[in-house]
Amino acid sequence: MDKLEAKNVNVFYGLNKVINDVSISIKPNSVTAFIGPSGCGKSTFLRLFNRMNDYIDIFKMEGKVEIDGKNIYDKAIRVEELRKKVGMVFQKPNPFPKTIYENIVYGLRIQGIKDKNILDETVEKSLKQAALWEEVKDKLKNSALALSGGQQQRLCIARTLAVEPTVILMDEPASALDPISSAKVEELIYELKNNYTIVIVTHNMQQAARVSDTTAFFYMGELIEHDSTKIIFTNPKNERTQNYVTGRFG
Amino acid sequence: MNNAVKNRIKDNAFKYFGIACTSFGLLMLAIFIGNILIEGLARIDWDFITNFPSRNPDKAGILPALVGTLWIMGLTAIIAIPLGVSAGIYLEEYGRKNRLAKILEINISNLAGVPSIIYGLLGLEIFGRIMGMGGSLLAGASTLSLLILPVIIVSTREALKAVPKSIKEASFAMGASKWQTIWHQLLPASFGGVITGIILALSRAIGETAPLIVIGALAYVPFVPASPTDEFSVLPIQIFNWISRPQKGFAINAASAIIILLLVTFVLNGIAMYLRNRWQRKVRW
Fold first, then answer.
1. Cα–Cα distance, A216 to A32 (Å, whole number)
2. Which residues numbered 245-274 in B keep a CB inside 8 Å of some CB on A?
3. Which backbone phi and psi does A20 adopt, to 5 degrees?
């Protein structure tokens, strides 16, 4: 079964239609890259999957978004529960102004978990998964804001992993990082793929080509083409996709 | 004369004008404080602080007024802080951002500019008469709470607004509810701003005289208020009372009481600045 599925989705900001009749299915334990020029709606579309658009007053949507076959816009869905299953990593690293330790356990604390053993274990496990443990294991009680940008972003990934989601949404997770940090994050995405379904928005074509299994090209609020990354980058069916991935526009 | 020279002259001209403007305020304050200190400092001793008011200026003290001021401060804080901070949180985080909200916002800002004597009249009617509190500490504190609520609400909102949106998003994305986000992220991150607003509001309340006179605070209180339902006086009223007496001795007493009042205000402002700096150092984006 498909992990994520969107069916005939329209999104409006006020009277502006920003997503136009988009349908897509995404397989479990895969990396899908959303590419397209700025303002094409890929970030808005990504944020549908954890309902982060709900906070925009003028946001309105039609159609269905399903995770594991369940419509997440159903009235019976509790959005806090949904977000424990669908984690998100943002463009700019946004650690909380707290210690490294407190950043990681935040998701557990708000679920009411107080057992110190569980918290400690989760911190170590998540940081190891995010390939950050060796760098920070001796300064867990230091402020997260003292870390470098790349470390902060991996901390944010670790924080997301701590609540054991099954889906991770990433909104240009490496665009604010230097090339070395960026490469580390990419490597991490590649490893996480085995256990998580990952959707990543990126402006970086090489990055999309390197990390993703399938790629979806968005243009002006429409999904132009979604296929295996290899085909999108070597032999796309649509001319606009061809032009975009070869850098002729966008 | 070419343009560069002209510009430099204009630049300097404004600089010196600015210095003059700034020094005017500071100079006036210095003269005022100097004057008060010369006149009143000598009169301040332990007796002055622990004595009751008296017909004899040499024996008169500020004890009831000082205790009244502390009572009023405490009660006002207890009433106004939860109300103001909660209202600020609601308006900023829960209230919808529609036209009604804008009208509300403008009116709250306007309330901060309403002359304080109007609040006194309001307090006299509602707290003093309808709710039957009379001229008690509680009536006074309630009235002053109304007076400073707008300041606390506005500063709470500003402090919350200053927290980066990315922190809020991160918290929501972790599955936190709105209240959890406010409690665990927004309030700690904006604590410095909120507390500064509260203390500045309280230090405004401490100097208010008019509304308390209207609700019936007394000028002569021969006892130390011991419960919120007691009648009371406060330092500004005591000062006002002494100033309006003809004897020279009372004028000196007034100056001394002003020094005490300033001291309390400065201490409060000092705490505000300390807390703000401390929290700003701690939270850097």
1. 7
2. none
3. -120, 105
The answer on B20 and B89 residing in a single domain is no
Are residue B19 and residue B67 in the same domain, yes or no? no
Q: Give ipTM to 2 decimals.
A: 0.91
Which of B74, B76, B47 has the alpha carbon at shortest distance from B59?
B47
Which CATH number goes with the domain that contains B155?
1.10.3720.10
Please tell me if residue A73 touches chain B, with a CB cutoff of 8 Å.
no
B144 and B36 co-located in one domain: no
Question: pLDDT, tens digit, for every residue of B19-73?
Answer: 999 999 999 999 999 999 999 888 888 989 898 988 888 888 899 999 999 999 9
Q: Tell me how far apart the alpha carbons of residues A89 and A156 are, in angstroms, rounded to a whole number.
A: 7
What would the pLDDT profile of A131-170 be if each residue is shown by its tens digit? 899 999 999 999 999 999 999 999 999 999 999 999 999 9
Same domain for B38 and B131, yes or no, is no
- The nearest alpha carbon in chain A to B178 belongs to A80
CA distances in angstroms from A96 to A104, A152, A215, B285, listed in the order given: 10, 10, 32, 10
Domain identity same for B7 and B66: no
